[in-house]
Amino acid sequence: NRCIAMKVSELRNKDISELNKELFSLLKAQFGIRMQLATQQLSNPKQLTAIKKDIARVKTLITQKINNHDK
């Protein structure tokens, strides 16, 4: 599986297109985890919380990069 907590420093080095790809893969992973939760096959419920936080991190960095790019 994937590393639960991402490092912000590792994400800051990526450009917007790479962050969008990362966001897409996180959203797909979140969907899979939600399906496991719904079918009661999820072994570690903390995965859902961690992936939500990772999605928020990536979205925040995308917003920061867009706002800094405009200046």
Question: What fraction, in percent, of the residue positions are helical?
Answer: over 70%
Q: How large a portion of the residues is in β-strands, by DSSP E?
A: under 5%
**Sequence of secondary-structure elements:** HHH
Task: Give me the number of helical elements.
Answer: 3
* N/C terminus separation: 39 Å
**Low-pLDDT windows of residues:** none
Q: Tell me the overall shape.
A: elongated
- Structural class computed from helices and strand pairing: mainly alpha
Gyration radius over CA: 14 Å
Q: What do the pLDDT scores average to?
A: 87
| Strand element count | 0
Main sheet characteristics: none
In a nutshell, what does this entry contain?
This protein has helices at 8-12, 16-38, 46-70.
Q: Can you walk me through this structure?
A:
With 71 residues, this protein is an all-alpha fold. It starts with 7 loop residues before the first helix and ends with a helix. The chain has helices at residues 8-12, 16-38, 46-70. The longest helix has 25 residues, at 46-70. It is elongated and about 45 Å long. The mean pLDDT is 87. Helix 2 packs antiparallel against helix 3 (46-70).
